[in-house]
């Protein structure tokens, strides 16, 4: 026997036993334990958030040895975990080895008694480790310890590439079930069935299998339909009996779910195709054998909320235009959980269960189902017992859960999802079959003649039109994911937007009307981020209403996920292409008001490249001044999206300066955009013979100097040449030098000396070029002209400077959101504190930068640019810290936008940490002046490449000391601190917190091991935070 404790080695000591008593675990842990207690596992390792919500991360199973008996148990456990979906890793260990199995991969079908478990399970094995192999054990600890799991380091380390290749979310239960249903639908279409009938049969089957697998139907129920039948699959062998079953269920479920048309016709062969799909799956393979005892899908385990995901993804596959036409996007369960964890938490202290909830665009009901489940849990918290009584569950549902949806099929899925959630709590679960226990009528749709009675919970109607039955209710909580987009707008959306002066944007009326549904409650709705940043007056009107007429508590800005590549974890909204945000707000002011609005805006993609979600670190959490947010023209949403509090303060300081536009006016500098060539819409061509024929195209403009001229005619596209040929009455090849234009532009700026500033960026940099020869240019170029060449050369240096780049990046309406370009009015608004003397000094640097004889750059451009930037900082009277803020933003933040991650997200080093620690100490000591107390820093060197965290220590004493470099191995300490630092906020949306860990007269500063967290500007912000914490403790 090898003396090796694998649990301790991997940090799994806090894994929870599956046999734990309820008083030994948290409420959220108990929920999971009850869900998985029959999986054949022994322990669960949980990740826990700051609200003590726990989420399963790893399942553990111990075996005596890896023989056929144990391997069979592993195969059965893996299948159950696959159906559970929420956990990828199953760790199985003996006294001598550990094997890590992939529970995101489709399970094995065990077809024979002599099944080769050893061989077949190899396909599900991610890696195995013998405890005697010390080299491989190091890899095990680096890649599969709890730190590695919680931080997701396995998904980003180059060393784990081969392991990552073995994991694919495309074979998870939800993905594979949707794929199987889609292939089945296409197969049935080829057999001649109409798509709407196929849709009905598949959804009925899903519903029945959920009922059956969860014990809500039994042999007695089926044998009344067909003698000897024990399950739905027995019924499917007979088409007539199948329809008898459907009609029976139509009666039980009030026509809300099963509507059987008289002209429906389906053959036994068709039903067998459906049977195969639900037993073994259907991935379009040739294998047709059915193994009914080895069913792949287990609906007693597959979460009810997945029904919504399965339905909407299936519907999108068979009817892809519906989503585009309606502007709706499927809401992933993790986002639903994130929102409801904020607004409907279920800890043991939460006992209020009469909470009226509305989803104004409920779709297939994912928000409503999860909300109902949470109300049941709150009821149980209040009463101290399980809620299994039919009438109490029915009342809880009909009193509190409401939805509006325009799509008739979606609202029926919402209804039967809610029925399932109700039935799932019953004891006995078959009680709904008793005539004395009638399921509630939910759907209200006067146009549906099949409904036995109109319900009062799910309304099929246009939310934006008048809905008196809904509007007479006052809801405590409004949640949902309204449609967004600017195409295919309904008349009600157009009229509503016109009424309030809002942009023609689908989501805006839903955000606005939510306040009429909830006079005194809370609202959490998803929307597209451009609503925060678009500068058009109609968007400003909406922001003015939202931030002045309502009370906004917080905004989550998930825009970085817009272009998240699927090989980097996939998008939170798999089908959405625009930037996504969530608004938490209410119509009326709360009793306890805050002067700030909480703003989350992650700058990076998710931490894992196989788990969907988003990583939010402490630097992405901002508290924005409410008064500033109230201004509809404020740029704060853009500034805070990419910058920190230091950037917000610096931009505010810069905005108190004069503007470049004021200087241009004072010095009588000519300004304006260039010419426009004739096009088909030109009504009044303008003849002008003074415009220089020497011409420069925007693509030929470089920073500082260009000298890449052509002539006016070369600026014409082929289409433009044809328009001009028609104008002059000649052939294209005979065009004269053109002298007629749609617009002549700012003519005085064509004459030298002048500056040309192009609208687009050049390698992600602002591009201003000084020219001493007259030339014309088009309207994508801004020109400045003046007789003082030195003044213009100085201005060229300023516009190309790091400061101008910094300011424009943070304040431009377009850069980093839609298109990488700057508009003339944004250049004019640049803060400007330079005198003519300052500009002439910059001109001297410019003249040294350019070698006049050859008009090419001096070879040491970087050195000159550093001199320019340093001089401009002095002119603006920047402190050392303000200069660092600008420098660090350009070096460490902008690369996150332009996808140059390797450097800024790469591991830091001891020199960078040392500089960081010194800066923190300096700021603390400035604060502690005359207190006879000093902050001294210690930097730890022995944290290896695999460490997800880096640490420095601040110790307070009565004398000032040099930086201490410690060789103490902090792996064990970081392992403990990591449990507090990395915590899940929802199933797969991670909140990464900064940690200042205080003990005695010491503070451990813990941050992720990424270079961007250990910059000088970050040290400035962190020191301010520490000072605030110290003051709060006094």
From TrEMBL:
It comes from the Bacteria. InterPro entries: DNA_methylase_N6_adenine_CS, MethylTrfase_TaqI-like_dom, N4_N6_ade-DNA_methylase, SAM-dependent_MTases_sf. It is an enzyme of class 2 (transferase). This is site-specific DNA-methyltransferase (adenine-specific). One of its GO terms (molecular function) is DNA binding. Residues 400-558 form the Type II methyltransferase M.TaqI-like domain. Keywords: DNA-binding, Endonuclease, Hydrolase, Methyltransferase, Nuclease, Restriction system, S-adenosyl-L-methionine, Transferase. One of its GO terms (biological process) is methylation. Its EC number is 2.1.1.72. Gene3D superfamilies: Vaccinia Virus protein VP39. It catalyses: a 2'-deoxyadenosine in DNA + S-adenosyl-L-methionine = an N(6)-methyl-2'-deoxyadenosine in DNA + S-adenosyl-L-homocysteine + H(+).
């Amino acid at each position: 026997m090898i003396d090796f404790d694998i649990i301790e080695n991997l940090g799994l000591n806090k894994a929870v036993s599956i046999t734990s008593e309820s008083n030994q675990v948290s409420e959220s842990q108990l929920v999971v334990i009850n869900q998985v207690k029959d999986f054949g596992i022994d322990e669960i390792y949980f990740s826990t958030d700051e609200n003590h919500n726990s989420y399963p991360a790893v399942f553990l199973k111990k075996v005596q040895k890896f023989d056929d008996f144990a391997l069979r148990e592993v195969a059965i456990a893996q299948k159950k975990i696959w159906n559970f979906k929420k956990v990828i890793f199953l760790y199985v260990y003996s006294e001598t080895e550990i094997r890590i199995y992939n529970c995101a991969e489709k399970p094995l079908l065990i077809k024979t008694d002599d099944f080769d478990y050893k061989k077949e399970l190899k396909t599900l094995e991610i890696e195995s480790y013998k405890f005697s192999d010390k080299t491989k054990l190091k890899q095990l600890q680096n890649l599969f310890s709890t730190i590695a799991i919680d931080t997701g380091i396995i998904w980003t380390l180059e060393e784990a590439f081969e392991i990552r290749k073995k994991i694919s979310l495309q074979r998870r239960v939800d993905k594979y079930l949707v794929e199987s249903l889609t292939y089945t639908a296409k197969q049935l279409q080829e057999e001649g069935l109409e798509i709407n009938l196929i849709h009905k049969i598949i959804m009925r089957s899903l519903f029945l299998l959920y009922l059956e697998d969860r014990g809500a139907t039994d042999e007695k129920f089926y044998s009344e339909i067909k003698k000897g039948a024990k399950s739905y699959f027995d019924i499917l062998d007979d088409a007539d009996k199948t329809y008898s079953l459907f009609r029976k269920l139509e009666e039980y479920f009030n026509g809300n779910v099963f509507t059987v048309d008289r002209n429906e016709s389906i053959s036994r062969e068709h039903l067998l195709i459906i049977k195969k799909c639900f037993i073994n799956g259907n991935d379009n393979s040739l294998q047709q054998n059915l193994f009914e005892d080895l069913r792949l899908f287990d609906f007693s385990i597959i979460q009810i909320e997945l029904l919504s995901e399965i339905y909407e993804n299936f519907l999108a596959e068979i009817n892809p235009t519906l989503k585009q036409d309606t502007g709706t996007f499927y809401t992933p369960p993790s986002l639903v959980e994130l929102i409801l964890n904020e607004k409907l938490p279920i800890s043991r202290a939460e006992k209020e269960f009469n909470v009226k909830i509305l989803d104004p665009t409920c779709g297939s009901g994912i928000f409503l189902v999860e909300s109902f489940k949470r109300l049941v849990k709150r009821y149980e918290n209040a009463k101290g017992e399980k809620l299994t009584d039919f009438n109490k569950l029915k009342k809880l549902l009909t009193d509190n859960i409401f939805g509006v949806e325009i799509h008739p099929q979606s609202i029926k899925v919402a209804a039967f999802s809610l029925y399932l959630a109700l039935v799932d709590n019953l004891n006995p679960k078959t009680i709904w079959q008793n005539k004395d226990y009638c399921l509630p009528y939910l759907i209200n749709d006067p146009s549906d003649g099949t409904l036995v009675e109109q319900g009062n919970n799910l309304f099929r109607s246009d939310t934006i039109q008048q809905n008196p039955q809904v509007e007479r209710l006052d809801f405590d909580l409004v949640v949902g994911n309204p449609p967004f987009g600017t195409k295919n707008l309904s008349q009600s959306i157009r009229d509503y937007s016109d009424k309030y002066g809002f942009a023609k944007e689908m989501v805006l009326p839903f955000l606005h009307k939510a306040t009429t549904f909830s006079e005194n409650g809370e609202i959490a709705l998803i929307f597209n981020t451009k609503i925060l940043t678009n500068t058009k007056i109609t968007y400003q009107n909406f922001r003015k209403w939202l931030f002045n007429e309502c009370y906004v508590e917080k905004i989550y800005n998930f825009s970085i996920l817009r272009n998240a590549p699927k090989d980097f974890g996939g998008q939170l909204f798999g089908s959405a292409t625009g930037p996504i945000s969530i608004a938490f707000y209410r119509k009326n002011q709360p009793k306890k008001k805050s002067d700030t609005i909480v703003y989350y805006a992650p700058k990076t993609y998710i931490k894992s490249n196989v788990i969907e979600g988003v990583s939010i670190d402490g630097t992405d959490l901002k508290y924005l001044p409410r008064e500033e947010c109230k201004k509809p023209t404020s740029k704060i949403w853009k500034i805070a999206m990419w910058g920190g509090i230091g950037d917000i303060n610096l931009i505010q300081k810069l905005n108190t300066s004069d503007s470049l536009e004021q200087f241009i006016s004072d010095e009588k500098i000519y300004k304006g955009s260039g010419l426009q060539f004739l096009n088909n819409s030109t009504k009044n061509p303008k003849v002008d013979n003074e415009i220089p024929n020497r011409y420069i195209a925007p693509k030929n403009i470089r920073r500082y100097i260009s000298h890449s001229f052509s002539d006016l005619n070369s600026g014409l596209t082929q289409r433009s040449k044809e328009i001009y040929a028609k104008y002059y009455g000649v052939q294209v090849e005979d065009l004269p030098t053109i002298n007629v234009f749609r617009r002549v532009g700012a003519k005085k700026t064509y004459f030298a000396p002048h500056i040309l500033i192009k609208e687009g960026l050049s390698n992600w940099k602002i591009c201003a070029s000084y020219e001493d020869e007259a030339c014309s240019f088009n309207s994508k170029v801004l020109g400045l002209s003046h007789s003082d060449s030195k003044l213009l050369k100085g201005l060229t240096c300023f516009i190309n400077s790091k400061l101008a780049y910094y300011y424009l990046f943070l304040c431009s309406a377009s850069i980093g959101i839609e298109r990488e370009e700057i508009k003339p009015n944004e250049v004019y608004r640049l803060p400007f504190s330079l005198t003519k003397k300052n500009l002439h000094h910059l001109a001297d640097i410019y003249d040294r930068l350019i070698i006049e004889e050859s008009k090419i750059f001096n070879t040491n451009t970087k050195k000159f640019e550093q001199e320019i930037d340093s001089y401009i900082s002095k002119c603006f009277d920047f402190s050392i810290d303000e200069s660092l803020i600008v420098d660090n933003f350009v070096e460490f933040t902008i690369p996150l936008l332009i996808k140059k991650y390797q450097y800024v997200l790469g591991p830091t080093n001891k020199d960078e940490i040392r500089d960081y620690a010194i800066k923190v100490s300096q700021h603390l000591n400035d604060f502690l002046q005359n207190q006879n107390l000093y902050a001294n820093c210690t930097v730890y060197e022995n944290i290896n490449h695999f460490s997800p965290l880096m640490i420095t220590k601040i110790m307070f004493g009565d004398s000032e000391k040099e930086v201490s470099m410690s060789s103490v191995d902090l792996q064990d300490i970081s392992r403990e601190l990591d449990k507090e630092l990395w915590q899940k906020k929802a199933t797969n949306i991670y909140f990464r917190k900064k940690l200042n860990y205080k003990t005695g007269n010491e503070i451990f500063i813990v941050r992720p091991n990424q270079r961007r967290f250990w910059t000088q500007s970050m040290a400035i912000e962190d020191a301010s935070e520490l000072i605030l914490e110290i003051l709060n403790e006094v």
